[in-house]
Angiopoietin like 4
Amino acid sequence: ELRLFKQLHLIQLLESPHCPRKTEEIRAQRAWSEPSEKTSWDRADFSTREPRGAAEHPPGHRPDCQQLFLAGQQSSGIFQVQPSGSQPFKVYCDMTAEGGWTVIQRRTDGSVDFDQLWDAYKNGFGDLHGDFWLGLEKIHHLVQEGRYNLLIELEDWEGNSQAVQFEFSLGGESTAYTLNLLGPLSGELENAIGDFRQLPFSTRDRDHDLKADTNCAKHLSGGWWFSTCGHANLNGKYFRSIPRQRHERKQGIFWKTWKGRYYPLKSTTMKIQPTALEAEP
Ligand SMILES: [Ca+2]
């Protein structure tokens, strides 16, 4: 871990603001993503549209997608889950040959506005069939079931993808949904989220970040486990090209240690799975 952190800091020292070649390539296909209207969780409701490539599944009382997988569900889609101490809610399950992942965040096309306030990030917003944020309260309840891994997958505009995975826990609202890193990171991506072992969640209207003189969520965009603003923000604005305006460049979806601070990523997925994949006895 220490080695990773040293690498991270080295990269931060060496990193230029952005790569000029990439900027030119992207400028050639400059096209703006129109900001969509605010999508409320209630309006999306996750039940009013057919999911992509999968039928709606009947309600159940399985706590998460891995338990649904163990119960015989093998195809990805929308399912109802109910962790202990929670009302039932719908999730998108990404079923692989090995197990079921519960998807907690997805960005693919900019169709959903992620520049939302605390209550929206707490309760969730967007469209489970497309781009969405599941909601901190739901994620908190899901990971109360045991030990969980978080898998983050990122894609750039040149067809490359990278991933990072680590064991984590998520505190409740009284901790500002603090993300705790519980284990070492695996995957190709350098760490850009956990150089601090614990990070509370921040939105424009709830500044819990580690930068005293700045509101990172306001300075950038969206809600995230901001430390000192510049490491990562997968809930930033969706850009199809690098914005010309300097203040807008900071607002995109970025993972500093992969593509740099000003490279707007093409897609992101965040999903969780128990660390132990066997059924509970
Ligand atoms: Ca601050």
Q: What stands out?
A: The pocket of calcium ion is lined by residues 207, 209, 211-212, 214-215 (CB under 6 Å). The first strand starts at residue 77 and ends at 81.
